[in-house]
Amino acid sequence: MRSHAPSLVGRDPHIVLLERALAEARQGRGGVVFLVGEAGVGKSRLAAEAVGRALGAGMRVLRGRSSTTGPAVPFRPLTEALMSLFRGGEPMDDLALGPYRPVLGRLIPDWDTGERESSSVVILGEAVLRLLIAAGRGQGQLLLLEDLHDADPETLGVLEYLVDNLEYSPVLLLATARTDFSEALDLAQSARRRGVAAVVEVPPLTRPQVHDMIAAQLGTDGSGEVPGPVLQRLWEDSAGSPYLIEELLQSMIGAGTLVQGPDGWRAVGDLRSDASSALARGILRRIDRLGAQGLTLLSAAAVLGRRFPLTVLQRMTGVDDRALLSHLHAGVAARLVIPDEPAPDWYSFRHSLTVEALFTQMTPGRRADLARRGAEAVEELHPGLDGDWCALAAGLRCEAGDHVEAGLLFGDAGGRALAKGALGSAVTLLSRAESLLADAGDPQARGAVLENLLPALAEAGDFTRAFGLAEDLHVLSGSGLSPERLATLHARLAKVAHTAGRWSDGNRQIVRAREVLASAPDEAAAAAVDVTAAYLALDTPGPDRTQHAEKLARSAADTAERYGLPVVACQASELLATVARERDPQESQAMLEQALATAERHRLPLQRMYAATRMGGNAWLAEGDTSGLLAAREEALRLGSVNIVHTVDGILVLDAVLRGDYETARSAAAECLAVVRRLRLAPAVRYVLMAQSALEAHLGDRTAMEAALAAFTEWDGVGSQEEPLGLGLARAFCALLEEDRDLARAELRAVLALEADNPSTYHLSGAHGLVLLLDVLAGEADRARHDEITATAVARMRWNRQFVLLADAVLLGREGAGARAAATVESALATAEPYPLAQHLGLRLIADAAHQDGWGDPVGWLRRAEHHFHERDTAAVAGACRAALRRLGAPVHQHRTGTNGIPDQLRAQGVTVREFDVFRLLADRLGNKDIADRLFISPRTAEKHIASLITKTGATNRADLCARSAALRAS
To answer: Average pLDDT of 204-231?
Structure first.
């Protein structure tokens, strides 16, 4: 029997696709191919074929496989793949990677500087991409990642970045995954929808293809050489799986039910045995041929997992080098095991069914004994249990029944994953640790695990489970847990409550933490309590909440500096930066930069993400720039922080509303609400509902706005920081779009009252901009009031600045400085450029005052505003603009089809659709008769239109008008 078919059966289209993808990679047009299919369908065999063809073409091949040994370990397949670069003897240290080389220390031990690198997974993805390109040797490169259905979330985060950025590189990424539900399959399907990857399903073989495969396995090409009963049984029992066909065929031959004679192969005896039993028996028969020592060796390997390291296996079994290699070579020849990466220490079983077959002949006691020996071997060979060794040892200890030791090891591995920002892996590992230690009744160890599990669950958005663990604190409090640890656990649970927006629950946990510390004071533990209490104070309704929060945060920051508490220091700096933003943006920025530096120095990716998010928020408030927020969201997505992802999503919804991108805002709000409501992430729910109410208000739909605000109230909206925004951005704007300035001013008075009772760190409610403009227009605010407001940092935020500038213009006009007033309006319009509704509403609001005081271009402003609101079907404002134009003695033009084609400047000058038609023809310097002929009007009418155009545009004569038309065409 041959070890495998000499050629792939039924896979010609797949090979053609892979050949084409490899060729394109060699030409610098990289790409991504996902091979998906059921277990045993031949994905790995196809991938091996691609590897062979890539090597034959001179391409470099990097291979990595996700592990099924214990919980997923961050970046394992990528580390395996990239480490092979350093085994070929080629120098890698001289690659031009610049600042990205230290980042790769997270994956490549050769480049690990010993310093804790805290770059985001986005940066890590870019670093991997640059390494792949630099190491390609100009011949193209194949990166093969197998079994991604078992991949950890962090690997998938880097993979997603690679998928989106490989198109113009000499790298082909080939990945295999099962069709079972997994994050990897979701990633593949999403990439396919975006058009950045090909997803190739590897189907089972058809009956004719099964026949061809059997014939190839039996070494015959004649159709009559495959016994009919054999084909029937294999077709029915294998369901077209190539692996099962091979295994079952081997079982038939081993059992003597398929024999070869002078006349070819023939069936003997009963072929109708249970397929799975026959498969297991066939595998065990092949193992038996390896002898007792071979069985022992492979049994020990099975306990280690589908992949197993030879050094650990040898320490477990005590066999010498010669015997070990002899049995491994025999196992390879029997198609039971194959070499794996990183070579030469790692091997793997060809299929998980081999592992299951080995388990069937082991008693539970034997299996536990082997697992214990395996754990001891791992701990002896790798005392620090770095990387994935800790999770492997934990899984083996659990299998051996050493639950306390397993729980401690899982807790250690989970804590390391959390420190690296690998939230998905952290939750998995810590959850297993907590469960094991709870069953074992070890409160001290369980308390240590809960310190990490609670924040990990909060970041992942699993609040139900996090609060479920709160009940266990009552048990732990009476179990001899140290006061410091118990206080820390109460503080961690308070932080969970803050993240979920449950102020009262959080404050209760703070009270309990302080009660614990009262009997045993501990400054370091008190600092952690204080900083969490500061965040809760900032969100708990009350007139002095800002001052109270700042006081607590400063106390925590001082203690953190004395005791070297980097997490507390970062959290305190972030809160102080939020409070400082209102009085001094530079101070706020400096504090965030300090938090960012601390997070990077101590490799705290979650704190780095929070600092980056707040910096992005500051930039958005200052200039409407969302790039920082988008980068922070991307980082949060890679880390798995549900909280930050949806917090940023809420801000982006509001940004879309203010920019007039209402369809995007509506769909994004609906999508975000569906998730955050399910997660009970109250702050995000409130923010999105507030943004949704603003959306409906900006569309002039009061009923829908009030419905959104009612839903907002149901989520503890009263007294929240978002409440003033609901009044200012929603109700006040809705009143202005209804041409009810008195109601708008009343809503803004309510905003000021709310801010007095519950100071907010959200500053776009109108209290520092819109209310000033309306009061100036009403004659109830003077220059002194204007100067008072403009002296604040909040008034300089872009959204507020547009209204402050308009108020300044109105005051300048009253003071007789008409030219300066008009120039200030231009500055306001430039500031308001991203916000079309606010921009045109501002023009509507100031036009009457400008006309009254004799400055600016009130007619042009009203025409621009009227056109905008007419196009948006905002009848009240459009009608008010037309009425104002009539009062000013300006003609009111009918709206005809084609108005949108008139440039804004000409439309503001009152140019009609027909006049614009004439204007465009003047670029060719046509006479009146030629213009009349083209437009089917009389020459006299053409002459009247030209005269009107000269008047409206301010052209000196017809030649000047022609030149302006030609300039417009050229632009």
So the answer is: 78
